[in-house]
Each structure stands twice: as structure tokens, then as C-alpha cells.
Amino acid sequence: MAFRFQRRVRILPGVRLNFGKTGVSVSAGIRGAGVTAGRRGVYGNVGAPGTGMSYRTRLDKNKAHQRRVDRAQNYRQSGLQGAGHVTLKCDDRGKLTMLEPDGSPASPAVTRHVWENHADQVRLFLAKEIEKINDDQDLLVNIHHDTPTLDTPSPEYDRVPFALEAPSFPNLPELPAQPLTRAQRWWHRIFRSLDERRIAANSADQDRWEKEFQRIERERNELEQKHATELAAWHSDKSRHDQEQQAAAASFAQRLQHDIDFMSDLLEEELSQLDWPRETHVDFEIKDKTLSLDIDLPTAETFPSREASLNQAGRRLLIKEKSATQQRKEYAQHIHGVVLRVIGVAFVTLPAIETIEVAAYTQAVNHATGHSEDQYLLQVTVRREEWQTLNLSEPERIDPVSALALFNLRRDMTKTGIFRPISI
């Protein structure tokens, strides 16, 4: 297999790969990833390889992706509640069968009852069966719909917020109220000893209050001083953290522009996260402001050869085999769509890249030797300013086969989608 460049990314359908300096690991999610949704879109927080940092990347998916997610959830249920829990099933020819809970065919009376009372649910089931057959084809043929627009934000350093909250002001103890003075009464003037006791009691109360007041005031001052010290330390730590984050963001931006190894690592991460309908390999290399890629495409034999529709009565599927010409044209659209999407992802991920060179190949059997050999199907070179001519905000209006012809393209393909290999 062709492996002309330094790095290889293996993109698997429904699986995410984690890349590291010591090898590759597979997980159900993305290494160090979190997802944030907001008014500006959906972003993922991903570990930047070899840096200990994370970065933000745009993860918005198109309608085709969402349809695939919904389909995976909806197809878990194929039963129809009511009428004895009838189960619906379509055979390979599209004929609808209703089955009893024991697996036996439903009686004509039950079948008639289901159609009379649950026709909408039955037709919904048939529509889902059509999607099962046709959606894979749609995702393959329209893979270019996932191509990001050039104004999609490039990866940016995800600043880590300061984890500690500012120390709260302490609850200060209340200062004691000054004691009430015992007033002199008429009998105090008559009985001198009573007046002396009154004066002594007032003095004792005042002494106790002053001591308690001073104690609590000292306690309050200590709490306030402790809070002031903690707050100053918090401000100092936060300022240091913010400076470190600012330096990390500046380093990330600088490396994204000038560090080829760092750029290569990020491109590996981005490509490995793509939601992809068929296993695809991408080899690449960065030199100066040019990115060169080899894309190992799936073979035409892996593509669906049937398509389904609802019959006129709306009670069964019509399944037909595609013509050889239709299959070739759909495969050609897929190949060109893959190239468009990879170019779009690369331009967004690596803002310093000005030129992208892509060669796309597949394997075919050499009937003389019996061995599989690499056959290059197309080669295209695209400059960033040229890429701006594509209306990627409305990708459904783009024909990927015609779109690549706008650039410096080499291919030998007939109008019916027959490729003749080119030399690289």
C-alpha cells in the first residue's frame, strides 16, 4: 500500500482513535474530550498532543450525521404495540410480514386490524426500512456535505478557568451592646451604702463590657486581616494562573503557525475525530506552508448496490439493483467528496497552510499477478485563496466531481465514472 509520507491516520466509521508519541489507542470517545454547546455552536475540548494542554475545536455536524445518530436510536425498536404486540419485518425483496409474539405469521384478520388501526405506525416502520437501505448510500454520496466552511474557527487553546473561588468575607461576631446604667433613685440618696453598690455595679458592668468589646474587636480585626491576607494570596494566584494561561494560548497560536510537528499532531487529532461512513486511511506530510496528502479510498465493491422506495399502495418496499453506470457515478461522487472534505478540514485545522496537494488511490487486483496493487485515481492541488470560491455554506448545491475540476486537477475518468489509473 502507498505510504509516501511520514504520518498515517486511520479513520474508522463510528470509532475514535487516540494518537500519542508512543502509539495509538482506541476508545469509545475522544481522549480528554468534553463537549460544550452554546449559541455559536458545538465545540469539543481535546488534549493537544505532547503539550499537556487542551484546545477547542468545532464539532458541529450536518443533517446527514444527525440522521445517522437518530437512525441508530430508532432502529432499536421494530415492534408495533397493540393488536397482540405484532412485530413487523421486511424480507430481502421488500415484502412486509407481520409476526405474532411466537414468530408465526399473523392471521389475515390481525393483519387487516393492524392496517385499519395502525396504518401510520406501519408506514413509519416502512420509511425506516427505506432509510436503512438508502441512508448509507446518501452518506457516501454526499460526504462532502460535512466539509467545514473556511470561516469555521480553527483550533484554539482552551483556557482553563481558575479553579478556586475568591475567599468569602467572614461572618464577624457582633460587638456587645453597651450596658444600661443603673439610675440613681430617691432611696439611694437616703441610704448611702445602696448608692455605693449601685455605682460599683455600674462600674463592674462597664469594665466587663469594655473587656468583652476589646476581645471581640480583636477577634474581628484578626478575621478581617486573615481574609485580607487570603484574598491577596488568591488575587496573586489568580493573576499568576491568568498569565500562565495567556502564555499558553500565545504558545498554542505560535506553534499552530510555525511548529510543523505540532501542526501534524493537531491534524492527526482532527482527522481521527471525523465521523466517516467507510474506513479510510490518510497519509500526510507538511513542508513549509504546503500540506501533501495521500488518501487510501475504499473500493467500489464496498458500496451499496440496491436502493429502496415505497410501492404505490404504500404497503411494501420496492427494492431494485442499481445499474453499473449508476454505481460508478456514485462511487466517483464519493471519491471526490472525500477529497473535498479532507481538504476543508485541513484548511480549517491548519491556518498557516496555503497549499494542499492531494493524491487519492485505491487497490485493484492485477489479473496478471493476482496481487492487489495501488492505483491512483486523481491528484489535485488547491490554494487557500482558490478554496474560497466554493460555497461551502450550501454544500448540497456543490457537485464534488465538478468542484475539483476548478483547481489544478489530474484524473482520467469517463462521463460514466470509469477511472483509468494515473501515474504519480
Can you describe this structure?
The chain has about 425 residues and is α+β, with helices and mostly antiparallel strands. The chain has 2 domains: about 5-80 and about 130-160 and about 260-410, no CATH class; about 185-255. Helix content is about 40%, strand content about 25%. It has 8 helices and 16 strands. The protein has helices at about 65-75, 110-140, 185-190, 190-260, 260-270, 325-350, 385, 400-405, and strands at about 5-10, 15-20, 25, 35-40, 40-50, 55-60, 85-90, 95-100, 155, 280-285, 290-295, 305-310, 315-320, 355-365, 370-385, 410. The strands form 5 sheets. It has a 6-stranded mixed sheet with strand order 1-10-11-14-15-16. Strands 4-5-6-9 form a 4-stranded antiparallel sheet. A two-stranded antiparallel ribbon has the order 2-3. The chain is elongated, with a radius of gyration of 37 Å. The two termini are about 15 Å apart. The model is unreliable at about 15-45 and about 75-85 (pLDDT under 50).
